[in-house]
Design brief:
Beta-Lactamase, flat, about 500 residues, alpha+beta, seven-stranded mixed sheet
């Protein structure tokens, strides 16, 4: 017998709500795009019309004004055009729908340095019917996609034989607790003489069991359908329970080829959890005598101190050949720019409660900045990423300026991590970072602080646990970029003052 998936009706309602929300968002976004396009087109048309009506407007020639505005009012997006003289009196009002409300664009008509009148254009509003008519193919495809998702859920979420067998065992246990089954050890004759009554009791107990679990099902437990064939023939229900009681430990076979369960509940072997619950993967570096990846997984730690490592990108080892009297002023300049960047950055309201833990100074190995939060809501991970991006932007400006002046300068690469992972991140930067790259090895708590503001992407072809956890900065949001530009401009302006 085929059973329906649990709560398939409720899932259908969720699917319908999702479809309507998607359609609503499509209407809103399409309406905004069309309105913006109409506004831009209307402004260009209005500028062109003003140039053409200057002389007729000066002489108040209504016939010429009517002829000139005729080809503009023939546009579908233009509802009406109104031309007024210097005294704000209407000389001409024309259009296909003069009483229609819409977006108004009004500009004065200037001849030389004198305002001789004004022109007002009213644009039609975009109706939802027009959007649906133009986007019907997308809406139909979205509806079909949601329908397929609902059908797929109804197929894959149906109860399996294992779930039905588990239900049968639970029913048996329930019946034993309720003293509705004959207890082992009683005479065979007693069980035989009461078989008909026992069948009825089983049927009744099954109904009681289902009713007893309806409340828990409504609160979120999975509802397991029951074979109703036992209602028509009590003997069938009796034989089914007898078969299940004769094999109380029967389970479906489980494939442990990819991983086996240890005595402590962890999964071991290829790609599983070891006996102590830690993760070990085939191909990853593993040493049972070291603290290894199982002890220092980045995702499991809290973020207390965020570290920003700034290293010079020097593939040709030019810094080693630089004289001391030239390298020291360059390091001092880098230190000064970094200090001013931190000052400007900590003025941002989004970084409230962030303080500098150390005093960074540049040398041949670069510089390290550490941030610490003073409140539970302080976003030290976000502060570190913002500093990394802001200083890369500043260094790009100073690097290009030094190149123009034919002076020594180097590009940089930056890494952001928590304090515990700084050494690992430094090793990853040497192997994976290039000029102006920003790598991060933050725990989950730090990654959550970047949501909606900073976009990360994983490293390609990782070979170690840390390379899998490491990511590089891929982009920032518009609001975040504006904040960073303000920080950069503030540092440059303070350097020029």
């Amino acid at each position: 017998m085929t059973y329906l998936a649990p709560r398939q009706g409720l899932f259908a309602i969720i699917i319908l709500i999702s479809f309507f929300i998607q359609t609503l968002l499509l209407l809103i976004s399409s309406s905004q795009q069309i309105d913006e396009l109409k506004m831009q087109t209307g402004e260009r048309m209005l500028v062109q019309l003003i140039e053409e009506v200057k002389l007729p407007l000066l002489s108040k020639d209504k016939v010429s004004l009517s002829v000139l505005t005729g080809r503009y009012t023939s546009e579908n997006n233009v509802a009406s055009l109104t031309i007024k003289d210097i005294d704000n009196e209407v000389l001409l009002q024309t259009g296909q729908a003069q009483m229609l409300e819409g977006d108004n664009i009004e500009q004065p008509v200037i001849l030389g340095d004198t305002v001789i009148g004004s022109v007002q254009m009213t644009l039609r509003k975009t109706s939802n019917g027009e959007i649906i008519a133009s986007q019907w193919l997308f809406i139909l495809g979205s509806f079909i996609t949601h329908l397929l998702i609902w059908l797929l859920y109804g197929y894959i979420a149906r109860p399996t034989r294992a779930q039905l067998a588990a239900l049968s065992r639970e029913v048996q246990d329930y019946l034993i607790r309720q003293n509705r089954l004959p207890i082992a050890g009683q005479g065979v004759s007693t069980a035989t003489s009461t078989s008909g009554q026992a069948g009825l009791n089983i049927h009744q107990a099954l109904g009681d069991y289902i009713k007893a679990h309806q409340d828990s099902t409504e609160t979120g437990d999975t509802k397991i359908p029951v074979d109703n064939s036992a209602k028509t023939d009590p003997a069938i229900g009796q034989s089914a329970l007898q078969r299940s009681s004769s094999q109380p430990n029967e389970h479906l076979p489980v494939d442990y080829s990819a991983g086996s369960v240890s005595s402590e509940g962890g999964l071991s072997a290829n790609g599983g959890l070891s006996a102590n619950g830690s993760l070990s993967a085939n191909g990853a570096e593993h040493n049972s005598n070291s603290d290894g990846a199982t002890k220092a997984l980045v995702a499991d730690r809290a973020l207390k101190v965020a570290s920003v490592q700034i290293h010079f990108y020097d593939p040709n080892s030019l810094l080693k050949t630089l004289a001391h009297e030239k390298s020291e002023p360059y390091f001092a300049l880098c230190t000064q720019l970094l200090e001013r960047t931190i000052e400007e950055l900590l003025k941002q309201q989004i970084l409230f409660g962030i303080k500098l833990k150390n005093k960074p100074i540049f040398d041949e190995n670069g510089a390290t900045v550490e941030f610490i939060g003073t409140t539970s809501h302080s976003k030290v991970g976000l502060a570190a990423m913002m500093l990394a991006k802001a200083y890369v932007m500043l260094n790009q400006v100073t690097y290009m300026k030094h190149r123009e002046l034919q002076r020594f300068a180097l590009e940089i690469m930056v890494g952001v991590s928590d304090q515990e992972s700084s050494d690992k991140l430094q090793h990853l930067m040497l192997n994976n970072a290039k000029a102006n790259d920003i790598l991060t090895l933050l725990p989950v708590e730090g990654i959550k602080q970047l949501r909606g503001l900073i976009q990360l992407s994983s490293l390609k072809n990782p070979t170690t646990v840390y390379e899998r956890d490491c990511a590089h900065l891929d982009g920032v949001s518009d609001s975040m970029m504006q904040r960073l530009i303000n920080v950069r401009d503030g540092v440059l302006l303070s350097a020029l003052s």
